[in-house]
Write a structure and sequence with these properties.
The chain has a domain of about 100 residues: ATP synthase, E subunit, C-terminal (hypothetical protein PF0899 fold, 2-Layer Sandwich), CATH 3.30.2320.30. About 70% of the residues lie in helices and about 10% in strands.
Amino acid sequence: MSLDTIKTTVLDAAREKADAVLAGARSEAERIAAEAAAAGERSTAETVRDAKQRAERMTTRELERIQHDNRLQILRAKNDAINEVFKRVKDALAAMPDDDYVDLVGKWLGGLPAGVGGTLRVNPRDEAKFSARLDKLNRCRKGDGKFAAVVADPRIESGTVVEGPDFAVDCTFERRLGELRETAAGEVAKALFG
């Protein structure tokens, strides 16, 4: 064999080997690329899925917050309506004729323990009506607890506070209506809102 033939045979064999290696490398590269593309698609799909889930969670949280805010606004509106009912009751009680007004407060005072007496603190506009009826209020009392005087106190809106040497008993309309509001708010709400 001649040198050219050997050279050609060796080169052809080398080319075949190189082509085979290149074909194998191409095949491996294509396989890797296909796997990377699949992984990329999976990764992209996972990223999209994760983003959708985050967006759904954020939307759900925002909707829950909005619903909570709406419930609070509705509760505030209902509470304001209930407060308005009790304000009107208080205003109606304060506008009662003098005798009825003092008689109502007298009933509350009659419920105090027998030994409770002292000074009646009232709103300045009520001082004269309570002073004029002080004897009647004392006659309704049982026991030795008597009311000694009526004193004007601008801090009191309506009703009275009985003040003794070491105590004070709140018989104001605000307190009485506050107690009533606590116990009757459900019934008032049911009447107002169904």
